[in-house]
Amino acid sequence: MTLITLQNYIDGNYCAPTGGQYLEGFNPATGEVFSQVPDSREADVSLAVQAAKKALPAWKAMPADDRFRILNAIAEGIEANLTEFAEAESMDQGKPVWLAKTEMQRAAQNFRFYATAAIQFASESHQTDTRAINYTLRQPVGIVGCISPWNLPLYLFSWKIAPALAAGNCVVAKPSEFTPYTAYLLCRICNEAGLPAGVLNVVHGLGASCGQAIVDHPEIKAISFTGGTATGKHIASVAAPMFKKLSLELGGKNPNIIFDDADLEEAVKTTVRSSFLNQGEICLCGSRVFIHTRMYEAFKAMLLEQVAKMQVGDPADDKTRVGAIVSKPHFEKVLSYIELAKAEGGRVLCGGTAVKPPGFENGWFIAPTIIEGLSQSCRTNMEEIFGPVITIMPFETEEEVLGMANDTAYGLACTIWTTDLKRAHRMAEAIQSGIVWVNCWLLRDLRTPFGGVKQSGVGREGGWEAMRFFTEPKNVCIAY
Ligand code: NAD
Predict the structure, then answer these.
(1) Which pLDDT value is given to residue 199?
(2) Both 24 and 171 in a single domain?
(3) First to last CA, the chain
(4) By CB neighbour count within 10 A (0-12 exposed, 13-18 middle, 19+ buried), where does 101 fall?
(5) What's the predicted TM-score (pTM) here?
(6) 249 lines ligand 1 (CB under 6 A)
(7) What pLDDT sits at residue 1?
(8) Do 434 and 418 fall within a single domain?
(9) What is the CATH number of the domain that holds 171?
Protein backbone atom coordinates (compact mmCIF):
# COMPACT_ATOMS: atom_id res chain seq x y z
CA MET A 1 0.00 0.00 0.00
CA THR A 2 1.33 3.46 -0.90
CA LEU A 3 1.55 5.64 2.15
CA ILE A 4 -0.08 9.07 2.05
CA THR A 5 2.46 11.67 3.14
CA LEU A 6 0.92 14.60 4.98
CA GLN A 7 2.73 17.94 5.11
CA ASN A 8 2.69 21.02 7.27
CA TYR A 9 1.03 24.14 5.84
CA ILE A 10 3.09 27.25 6.43
CA ASP A 11 2.87 30.61 4.66
CA GLY A 12 0.31 29.24 2.20
CA ASN A 13 2.45 26.28 1.11
CA TYR A 14 2.56 22.61 1.93
CA CYS A 15 6.04 21.79 3.29
CA ALA A 16 7.94 18.93 4.91
CA PRO A 17 8.96 19.17 8.58
CA THR A 18 12.42 20.78 8.87
CA GLY A 19 13.82 17.75 10.69
CA GLY A 20 12.55 15.40 7.96
CA GLN A 21 10.99 13.07 10.55
CA TYR A 22 7.53 11.49 10.22
CA LEU A 23 5.18 9.62 12.55
CA GLU A 24 3.05 6.64 11.51
CA GLY A 25 -0.65 7.28 10.92
CA PHE A 26 -2.88 4.26 11.57
CA ASN A 27 -6.27 3.21 10.24
CA PRO A 28 -7.99 2.02 13.46
CA ALA A 29 -10.38 -0.26 11.54
CA THR A 30 -7.55 -2.32 10.02
CA GLY A 31 -4.66 -1.61 12.39
CA GLU A 32 -2.55 -0.73 9.33
CA VAL A 33 -0.28 2.24 8.79
CA PHE A 34 -1.66 4.30 5.89
CA SER A 35 -0.04 7.71 6.30
CA GLN A 36 3.08 9.55 7.37
CA VAL A 37 2.52 12.51 9.65
CA PRO A 38 5.13 15.29 10.04
CA ASP A 39 6.90 15.04 13.39
CA SER A 40 7.28 18.80 13.67
CA ARG A 41 9.34 20.52 16.33
CA GLU A 42 10.12 23.99 17.62
CA ALA A 43 11.79 25.06 14.34
CA ASP A 44 8.60 24.33 12.38
CA VAL A 45 6.45 26.20 14.91
CA SER A 46 8.88 29.15 14.64
CA LEU A 47 8.46 29.22 10.86
CA ALA A 48 4.69 29.13 11.29
CA VAL A 49 4.83 32.04 13.76
CA GLN A 50 7.03 34.07 11.38
CA ALA A 51 4.54 33.51 8.56
CA ALA A 52 1.64 34.48 10.82
CA LYS A 53 3.46 37.62 11.95
CA LYS A 54 4.05 38.69 8.36
CA ALA A 55 0.39 38.09 7.42
CA LEU A 56 -1.17 39.72 10.49
CA PRO A 57 -1.22 43.45 9.56
CA ALA A 58 -3.05 42.91 6.27
CA TRP A 59 -5.46 40.29 7.65
CA LYS A 60 -6.33 42.50 10.63
CA ALA A 61 -6.99 45.43 8.35
CA MET A 62 -8.98 43.47 5.78
CA PRO A 63 -12.61 44.65 5.56
CA ALA A 64 -14.93 42.30 7.43
CA ASP A 65 -16.86 41.76 4.22
CA ASP A 66 -13.80 40.19 2.62
CA ARG A 67 -13.15 37.96 5.61
CA PHE A 68 -16.82 36.95 5.41
CA ARG A 69 -16.42 36.01 1.74
CA ILE A 70 -13.28 33.92 2.33
CA LEU A 71 -14.68 32.02 5.34
CA ASN A 72 -17.85 31.31 3.39
CA ALA A 73 -15.77 30.00 0.48
CA ILE A 74 -13.97 27.63 2.91
CA ALA A 75 -17.39 26.32 4.06
CA GLU A 76 -18.40 25.75 0.45
CA GLY A 77 -15.09 24.03 -0.28
CA ILE A 78 -15.63 21.52 2.54
CA GLU A 79 -19.17 20.83 1.34
CA ALA A 80 -18.06 20.38 -2.26
CA ASN A 81 -15.55 17.75 -1.10
CA LEU A 82 -17.68 16.20 1.63
CA THR A 83 -17.16 12.55 0.69
CA GLU A 84 -13.39 12.91 0.39
CA PHE A 85 -13.28 14.60 3.80
CA ALA A 86 -15.62 12.09 5.45
CA GLU A 87 -13.70 9.08 4.15
CA ALA A 88 -10.40 10.61 5.29
CA GLU A 89 -11.84 11.32 8.75
CA SER A 90 -13.15 7.79 9.08
CA MET A 91 -9.86 6.25 7.94
CA ASP A 92 -7.96 8.31 10.52
CA GLN A 93 -10.36 8.09 13.45
CA GLY A 94 -12.31 4.85 13.05
CA LYS A 95 -15.79 6.41 13.06
CA PRO A 96 -18.48 5.33 10.59
CA VAL A 97 -18.37 7.28 7.32
CA TRP A 98 -22.06 8.30 7.64
CA LEU A 99 -21.25 9.93 10.99
CA ALA A 100 -18.13 11.60 9.58
CA LYS A 101 -20.32 13.12 6.85
CA THR A 102 -22.54 14.80 9.42
CA GLU A 103 -19.46 16.12 11.23
CA MET A 104 -17.97 17.50 8.01
CA GLN A 105 -21.24 19.35 7.40
CA ARG A 106 -20.97 20.80 10.87
CA ALA A 107 -17.36 21.82 10.24
CA ALA A 108 -18.54 23.70 7.13
CA GLN A 109 -21.30 25.21 9.24
CA ASN A 110 -18.70 26.47 11.75
CA PHE A 111 -16.98 28.44 8.97
CA ARG A 112 -20.31 29.73 7.65
CA PHE A 113 -21.46 30.76 11.12
CA TYR A 114 -18.25 32.65 11.90
CA ALA A 115 -18.21 34.20 8.43
CA THR A 116 -21.41 35.96 9.44
CA ALA A 117 -19.96 36.68 12.90
CA ALA A 118 -17.14 38.60 11.17
CA ILE A 119 -19.68 41.10 9.86
CA GLN A 120 -22.15 41.05 12.75
CA PHE A 121 -20.01 41.09 15.88
CA ALA A 122 -20.63 44.40 17.61
CA SER A 123 -19.26 46.10 20.69
CA GLU A 124 -20.96 48.09 23.42
CA SER A 125 -20.93 51.78 24.18
CA HIS A 126 -21.82 53.47 27.47
CA GLN A 127 -22.71 57.04 28.17
CA THR A 128 -21.45 58.42 31.50
CA ASP A 129 -23.68 61.03 33.19
CA THR A 130 -24.02 62.79 29.84
CA ARG A 131 -20.43 64.05 30.05
CA ALA A 132 -18.53 61.24 28.40
CA ILE A 133 -19.07 58.39 26.07
CA ASN A 134 -17.27 55.07 26.41
CA TYR A 135 -16.97 52.68 23.54
CA THR A 136 -15.16 49.36 23.30
CA LEU A 137 -12.82 48.50 20.51
CA ARG A 138 -12.68 44.74 19.93
CA GLN A 139 -9.22 44.15 18.47
CA PRO A 140 -7.77 40.81 17.38
CA VAL A 141 -5.47 39.21 19.95
CA GLY A 142 -2.75 38.73 17.32
CA ILE A 143 -1.21 35.33 16.71
CA VAL A 144 -3.18 32.58 18.42
CA GLY A 145 -2.54 28.87 18.95
CA CYS A 146 -5.32 26.32 18.38
CA ILE A 147 -4.74 22.76 19.61
CA SER A 148 -7.39 20.10 19.08
CA PRO A 149 -8.02 16.42 19.99
CA TRP A 150 -8.74 13.25 18.00
CA ASN A 151 -12.38 12.50 18.71
CA LEU A 152 -14.16 14.99 16.42
CA PRO A 153 -11.10 16.05 14.45
CA LEU A 154 -12.19 18.57 11.80
CA TYR A 155 -15.29 19.63 13.66
CA LEU A 156 -13.33 20.75 16.74
CA PHE A 157 -10.42 22.10 14.68
CA SER A 158 -12.79 24.36 12.73
CA TRP A 159 -14.69 25.31 15.92
CA LYS A 160 -11.51 27.15 16.99
CA ILE A 161 -10.00 28.28 13.72
CA ALA A 162 -13.15 29.81 12.24
CA PRO A 163 -13.79 32.32 15.09
CA ALA A 164 -10.06 33.06 15.43
CA LEU A 165 -9.88 34.02 11.74
CA ALA A 166 -13.23 35.81 11.76
CA ALA A 167 -11.97 38.04 14.58
CA GLY A 168 -8.89 39.00 12.53
CA ASN A 169 -6.21 36.82 14.14
CA CYS A 170 -3.54 34.77 12.42
CA VAL A 171 -3.42 31.17 13.56
CA VAL A 172 -0.85 28.49 14.29
CA ALA A 173 -2.83 25.28 14.68
CA LYS A 174 -2.08 21.68 15.57
CA PRO A 175 -4.56 18.85 15.15
CA SER A 176 -4.10 15.62 17.08
CA GLU A 177 -1.23 13.46 15.85
CA PHE A 178 -3.73 10.57 15.75
CA THR A 179 -6.13 12.31 13.35
CA PRO A 180 -4.37 14.94 11.22
CA TYR A 181 -5.73 14.00 7.79
CA THR A 182 -8.73 16.34 7.43
CA ALA A 183 -6.79 19.32 8.85
CA TYR A 184 -4.25 18.62 6.10
CA LEU A 185 -7.00 18.54 3.44
CA LEU A 186 -8.51 21.74 4.81
CA CYS A 187 -5.35 23.69 3.91
CA ARG A 188 -5.94 22.99 0.21
CA ILE A 189 -9.48 24.33 0.56
CA CYS A 190 -8.14 27.44 2.32
CA ASN A 191 -5.82 28.17 -0.61
CA GLU A 192 -8.66 27.65 -3.10
CA ALA A 193 -10.89 29.95 -1.04
CA GLY A 194 -8.32 32.74 -1.28
CA LEU A 195 -7.17 32.78 2.35
CA PRO A 196 -3.99 34.89 2.23
CA ALA A 197 -0.70 33.07 2.88
CA GLY A 198 0.33 32.90 6.54
CA VAL A 199 -3.11 33.66 7.98
CA LEU A 200 -3.58 29.98 8.89
CA ASN A 201 -0.58 27.74 9.50
CA VAL A 202 -0.96 24.08 10.39
CA VAL A 203 1.87 22.14 12.02
CA HIS A 204 1.55 18.43 12.69
CA GLY A 205 3.30 16.50 15.42
CA LEU A 206 3.29 15.20 18.96
CA GLY A 207 1.82 17.10 21.88
CA ALA A 208 4.98 17.04 23.97
CA SER A 209 7.14 18.56 21.22
CA CYS A 210 5.07 20.37 18.59
CA GLY A 211 2.10 21.26 20.84
CA GLN A 212 4.42 22.30 23.63
CA ALA A 213 6.36 24.58 21.23
CA ILE A 214 3.09 26.38 20.39
CA VAL A 215 2.26 26.89 24.06
CA ASP A 216 5.84 28.01 24.82
CA HIS A 217 6.15 30.50 21.97
CA PRO A 218 6.23 34.05 23.35
CA GLU A 219 4.63 35.57 20.24
CA ILE A 220 1.54 33.37 20.47
CA LYS A 221 -0.74 35.42 22.69
CA ALA A 222 -3.68 33.07 23.25
CA ILE A 223 -4.16 29.31 23.35
CA SER A 224 -7.45 27.64 22.57
CA PHE A 225 -7.12 24.03 23.65
CA THR A 226 -9.46 21.06 23.60
CA GLY A 227 -8.24 17.78 25.05
CA GLY A 228 -7.66 15.88 28.26
CA THR A 229 -7.76 17.47 31.72
CA ALA A 230 -4.16 16.50 32.56
CA THR A 231 -2.88 18.17 29.37
CA GLY A 232 -5.05 21.22 30.07
CA LYS A 233 -3.58 21.52 33.56
CA HIS A 234 -0.07 21.34 32.14
CA ILE A 235 -0.80 23.93 29.43
CA ALA A 236 -2.27 26.29 32.03
CA SER A 237 0.87 26.00 34.16
CA VAL A 238 3.10 26.86 31.18
CA ALA A 239 0.92 29.63 29.75
CA ALA A 240 -0.08 31.43 32.97
CA PRO A 241 3.38 32.93 33.77
CA MET A 242 3.43 34.33 30.21
CA PHE A 243 -0.04 35.86 30.77
CA LYS A 244 -1.48 34.15 27.72
CA LYS A 245 -5.21 34.13 27.22
CA LEU A 246 -6.48 30.58 27.72
CA SER A 247 -9.58 28.68 26.69
CA LEU A 248 -9.53 25.09 27.96
CA GLU A 249 -12.18 22.56 26.92
CA LEU A 250 -11.38 19.39 28.86
CA GLY A 251 -12.71 16.00 29.92
CA GLY A 252 -16.11 14.94 31.21
CA LYS A 253 -17.89 12.23 33.17
CA ASN A 254 -21.39 13.29 32.38
CA PRO A 255 -24.54 12.18 34.20
CA ASN A 256 -27.63 11.08 32.29
CA ILE A 257 -30.57 11.15 34.72
CA ILE A 258 -33.85 9.39 34.02
CA PHE A 259 -36.76 10.23 36.35
CA ASP A 260 -39.78 7.94 36.65
CA ASP A 261 -42.04 10.37 34.77
CA ALA A 262 -39.78 10.43 31.70
CA ASP A 263 -40.92 9.37 28.24
CA LEU A 264 -39.38 5.89 28.49
CA GLU A 265 -39.12 5.18 24.78
CA GLU A 266 -37.55 8.53 23.93
CA ALA A 267 -35.16 8.34 26.91
CA VAL A 268 -33.95 4.87 25.92
CA LYS A 269 -33.57 5.75 22.24
CA THR A 270 -31.52 8.86 23.05
CA THR A 271 -29.51 7.09 25.74
CA VAL A 272 -28.32 4.61 23.11
CA ARG A 273 -26.95 7.59 21.14
CA SER A 274 -25.63 9.58 24.10
CA SER A 275 -23.77 6.51 25.35
CA PHE A 276 -22.32 5.04 22.17
CA LEU A 277 -22.27 7.60 19.35
CA ASN A 278 -18.74 7.87 17.93
CA GLN A 279 -17.80 4.80 20.04
CA GLY A 280 -18.56 6.85 23.17
CA GLU A 281 -15.62 9.09 22.25
CA ILE A 282 -17.48 12.39 22.61
CA CYS A 283 -16.75 14.61 25.58
CA LEU A 284 -20.53 15.13 25.92
CA CYS A 285 -21.48 11.43 26.09
CA GLY A 286 -23.39 10.45 29.23
CA SER A 287 -21.27 7.74 30.80
CA ARG A 288 -23.03 7.58 34.19
CA VAL A 289 -26.69 6.71 33.73
CA PHE A 290 -28.91 7.19 36.79
CA ILE A 291 -32.37 5.60 36.56
CA HIS A 292 -35.22 5.98 39.05
CA THR A 293 -35.89 2.66 40.81
CA ARG A 294 -39.50 2.54 39.55
CA MET A 295 -38.24 2.77 35.96
CA TYR A 296 -34.99 0.82 36.39
CA GLU A 297 -35.91 -2.70 35.20
CA ALA A 298 -38.05 -1.53 32.27
CA PHE A 299 -35.40 0.96 31.14
CA LYS A 300 -32.61 -1.62 31.46
CA ALA A 301 -34.51 -4.24 29.45
CA MET A 302 -35.29 -1.81 26.62
CA LEU A 303 -31.76 -0.43 26.58
CA LEU A 304 -30.22 -3.91 26.39
CA GLU A 305 -32.60 -4.89 23.62
CA GLN A 306 -31.64 -1.86 21.51
CA VAL A 307 -27.91 -2.08 22.18
CA ALA A 308 -27.92 -5.74 21.14
CA LYS A 309 -28.98 -4.59 17.67
CA MET A 310 -26.04 -2.20 17.22
CA GLN A 311 -23.74 -3.27 14.43
CA VAL A 312 -20.03 -3.03 15.28
CA GLY A 313 -17.55 -3.04 12.41
CA ASP A 314 -16.96 -1.78 8.86
CA PRO A 315 -16.95 2.05 9.05
CA ALA A 316 -17.98 2.24 5.37
CA ASP A 317 -21.22 0.32 6.01
CA ASP A 318 -24.20 2.64 6.58
CA LYS A 319 -25.67 0.12 9.01
CA THR A 320 -22.63 0.27 11.32
CA ARG A 321 -23.37 2.03 14.58
CA VAL A 322 -20.06 1.49 16.39
CA GLY A 323 -16.77 1.92 14.54
CA ALA A 324 -13.19 1.36 15.68
CA ILE A 325 -11.47 2.88 18.73
CA VAL A 326 -9.05 5.60 17.64
CA SER A 327 -5.73 3.97 18.58
CA LYS A 328 -4.25 0.82 20.05
CA PRO A 329 -3.22 2.52 23.32
CA HIS A 330 -6.72 3.96 23.75
CA PHE A 331 -8.31 0.59 22.87
CA GLU A 332 -6.18 -1.03 25.59
CA LYS A 333 -7.05 1.74 28.04
CA VAL A 334 -10.80 1.26 27.50
CA LEU A 335 -10.49 -2.53 27.92
CA SER A 336 -8.48 -2.03 31.11
CA TYR A 337 -11.34 0.08 32.52
CA ILE A 338 -13.77 -2.77 31.84
CA GLU A 339 -11.46 -5.06 33.84
CA LEU A 340 -11.30 -2.44 36.60
CA ALA A 341 -15.11 -2.24 36.67
CA LYS A 342 -15.29 -6.02 37.12
CA ALA A 343 -12.66 -5.91 39.87
CA GLU A 344 -14.71 -3.21 41.59
CA GLY A 345 -17.71 -5.54 41.63
CA GLY A 346 -19.48 -4.44 38.44
CA ARG A 347 -21.65 -6.87 36.44
CA VAL A 348 -21.17 -6.62 32.69
CA LEU A 349 -24.68 -6.77 31.19
CA CYS A 350 -23.54 -6.63 27.56
CA GLY A 351 -20.33 -6.20 25.60
CA GLY A 352 -17.27 -6.07 27.80
CA THR A 353 -14.89 -7.43 25.17
CA ALA A 354 -12.97 -6.61 22.03
CA VAL A 355 -14.72 -7.56 18.78
CA LYS A 356 -13.18 -8.85 15.56
CA PRO A 357 -15.66 -8.05 12.77
CA PRO A 358 -15.19 -10.15 9.60
CA GLY A 359 -12.65 -8.44 7.33
CA PHE A 360 -11.45 -6.21 10.17
CA GLU A 361 -9.82 -8.77 12.46
CA ASN A 362 -6.82 -6.53 13.14
CA GLY A 363 -8.87 -3.44 13.96
CA TRP A 364 -9.53 -2.00 17.41
CA PHE A 365 -13.23 -2.61 18.06
CA ILE A 366 -15.01 -2.87 21.42
CA ALA A 367 -18.64 -3.95 21.81
CA PRO A 368 -20.95 -1.40 23.46
CA THR A 369 -20.69 -2.19 27.15
CA ILE A 370 -23.18 -1.65 29.98
CA ILE A 371 -22.16 -2.27 33.57
CA GLU A 372 -24.34 -2.31 36.69
CA GLY A 373 -23.84 -2.90 40.39
CA LEU A 374 -21.19 -0.24 40.98
CA SER A 375 -21.25 2.55 43.54
CA GLN A 376 -20.98 6.15 42.38
CA SER A 377 -17.73 6.57 44.30
CA CYS A 378 -15.72 3.80 42.59
CA ARG A 379 -12.89 4.64 40.15
CA THR A 380 -14.92 3.42 37.16
CA ASN A 381 -17.46 6.15 37.92
CA MET A 382 -14.91 8.81 38.81
CA GLU A 383 -12.46 8.57 35.89
CA GLU A 384 -13.08 9.40 32.26
CA ILE A 385 -13.05 6.23 30.12
CA PHE A 386 -13.94 7.91 26.80
CA GLY A 387 -15.11 4.76 25.06
CA PRO A 388 -18.26 2.67 24.50
CA VAL A 389 -18.70 1.93 28.20
CA ILE A 390 -21.45 3.17 30.53
CA THR A 391 -22.57 2.32 34.03
CA ILE A 392 -26.21 2.27 35.11
CA MET A 393 -27.24 3.03 38.69
CA PRO A 394 -30.64 3.22 40.45
CA PHE A 395 -31.78 6.17 42.58
CA GLU A 396 -34.82 6.98 44.74
CA THR A 397 -34.96 10.74 45.26
CA GLU A 398 -34.09 13.94 43.46
CA GLU A 399 -31.75 14.95 46.28
CA GLU A 400 -29.92 11.63 46.14
CA VAL A 401 -29.38 11.72 42.37
CA LEU A 402 -28.28 15.34 42.45
CA GLY A 403 -25.64 14.41 45.03
CA MET A 404 -24.40 11.52 42.90
CA ALA A 405 -24.45 13.49 39.65
CA ASN A 406 -22.36 16.27 41.19
CA ASP A 407 -19.99 13.86 42.93
CA THR A 408 -17.32 14.21 40.25
CA ALA A 409 -14.28 16.32 39.51
CA TYR A 410 -15.78 17.11 36.10
CA GLY A 411 -18.62 19.40 35.07
CA LEU A 412 -19.13 19.45 31.33
CA ALA A 413 -22.64 18.31 30.45
CA CYS A 414 -25.72 16.69 31.96
CA THR A 415 -28.92 15.21 30.54
CA ILE A 416 -32.16 15.14 32.51
CA TRP A 417 -35.23 13.15 31.50
CA THR A 418 -38.45 14.30 33.16
CA THR A 419 -41.85 15.70 32.15
CA ASP A 420 -42.07 17.73 35.37
CA LEU A 421 -41.19 21.28 34.34
CA LYS A 422 -40.48 22.48 37.86
CA ARG A 423 -38.13 19.61 38.51
CA ALA A 424 -36.33 20.22 35.21
CA HIS A 425 -35.67 23.84 36.22
CA ARG A 426 -34.64 22.88 39.78
CA MET A 427 -32.20 20.26 38.51
CA ALA A 428 -30.81 22.49 35.76
CA GLU A 429 -30.05 25.15 38.35
CA ALA A 430 -28.42 22.80 40.83
CA ILE A 431 -26.36 20.63 38.52
CA GLN A 432 -22.68 21.56 38.35
CA SER A 433 -22.04 21.61 34.62
CA GLY A 434 -21.64 24.03 31.74
CA ILE A 435 -24.35 22.44 29.60
CA VAL A 436 -27.70 20.91 30.57
CA TRP A 437 -29.98 19.08 28.17
CA VAL A 438 -33.58 18.35 29.20
CA ASN A 439 -35.35 15.58 27.27
CA CYS A 440 -32.74 15.69 24.50
CA TRP A 441 -29.03 15.31 23.91
CA LEU A 442 -26.51 16.97 21.60
CA LEU A 443 -29.02 19.48 20.31
CA ARG A 444 -26.50 22.17 19.49
CA ASP A 445 -27.04 25.75 18.41
CA LEU A 446 -23.81 27.45 17.39
CA ARG A 447 -24.85 30.69 19.11
CA THR A 448 -24.95 29.11 22.59
CA PRO A 449 -22.02 29.05 25.06
CA PHE A 450 -20.13 25.77 25.10
CA GLY A 451 -17.78 24.61 27.86
CA GLY A 452 -17.45 23.15 31.30
CA VAL A 453 -16.89 23.94 34.96
CA LYS A 454 -14.63 22.29 37.57
CA GLN A 455 -12.00 20.12 35.86
CA SER A 456 -13.91 20.20 32.55
CA GLY A 457 -12.36 23.51 31.67
CA VAL A 458 -12.09 27.24 31.76
CA GLY A 459 -13.84 29.63 29.39
CA ARG A 460 -16.52 29.12 26.77
CA GLU A 461 -16.56 28.58 23.05
CA GLY A 462 -19.46 29.17 20.68
CA GLY A 463 -21.25 32.25 19.39
CA TRP A 464 -20.05 35.60 20.70
CA GLU A 465 -18.14 33.81 23.50
CA ALA A 466 -15.51 32.68 21.00
CA MET A 467 -15.43 36.10 19.33
CA ARG A 468 -14.83 37.66 22.75
CA PHE A 469 -12.05 35.19 23.50
CA PHE A 470 -10.28 35.92 20.23
CA THR A 471 -10.47 39.71 20.68
CA GLU A 472 -9.10 42.13 23.26
CA PRO A 473 -11.60 44.71 24.47
CA LYS A 474 -10.15 48.22 24.68
CA ASN A 475 -12.26 50.90 26.28
CA VAL A 476 -12.09 54.41 24.85
CA CYS A 477 -13.58 57.20 26.97
CA ILE A 478 -14.27 60.54 25.30
CA ALA A 479 -15.43 63.53 27.32
CA TYR A 480 -17.65 66.06 25.64
P1 NAD B 1 -4.88 15.12 24.72
O2 NAD B 1 -4.92 16.09 25.84
O3 NAD B 1 -4.00 13.95 24.83
O4 NAD B 1 -4.46 15.86 23.35
C5 NAD B 1 -5.17 16.94 22.83
C6 NAD B 1 -4.24 17.76 21.95
O7 NAD B 1 -3.24 18.34 22.77
C8 NAD B 1 -3.51 16.94 20.90
O9 NAD B 1 -3.38 17.71 19.73
C10 NAD B 1 -2.15 16.71 21.54
O11 NAD B 1 -1.11 16.49 20.62
C12 NAD B 1 -1.95 18.03 22.27
N13 NAD B 1 -1.00 18.01 23.38
C14 NAD B 1 -0.68 16.96 24.17
N15 NAD B 1 0.28 17.34 25.06
C16 NAD B 1 0.52 18.65 24.84
C17 NAD B 1 1.38 19.61 25.44
N18 NAD B 1 2.22 19.30 26.43
N19 NAD B 1 1.38 20.87 24.96
C20 NAD B 1 0.55 21.21 23.96
N21 NAD B 1 -0.26 20.35 23.33
C22 NAD B 1 -0.29 19.08 23.78
O23 NAD B 1 -6.39 14.71 24.46
P24 NAD B 1 -6.92 13.63 23.42
O25 NAD B 1 -6.62 12.28 23.98
O26 NAD B 1 -6.49 13.99 22.07
O27 NAD B 1 -8.49 13.90 23.47
C28 NAD B 1 -9.36 13.28 24.36
C29 NAD B 1 -9.72 14.23 25.49
O30 NAD B 1 -10.29 15.42 24.96
C31 NAD B 1 -10.78 13.65 26.42
O32 NAD B 1 -10.40 13.93 27.74
C33 NAD B 1 -12.03 14.43 26.06
O34 NAD B 1 -12.98 14.53 27.07
C35 NAD B 1 -11.45 15.75 25.70
N36 NAD B 1 -12.38 16.52 24.87
C37 NAD B 1 -13.01 17.60 25.42
C38 NAD B 1 -13.92 18.33 24.67
C39 NAD B 1 -14.60 19.55 25.24
O40 NAD B 1 -15.17 20.31 24.47
N41 NAD B 1 -14.60 19.75 26.54
C42 NAD B 1 -14.18 17.96 23.36
C43 NAD B 1 -13.53 16.84 22.83
C44 NAD B 1 -12.63 16.13 23.60
Answers:
(1) 99
(2) yes
(3) 73
(4) middle
(5) 0.98
(6) yes
(7) 76
(8) yes
(9) 3.40.605.10
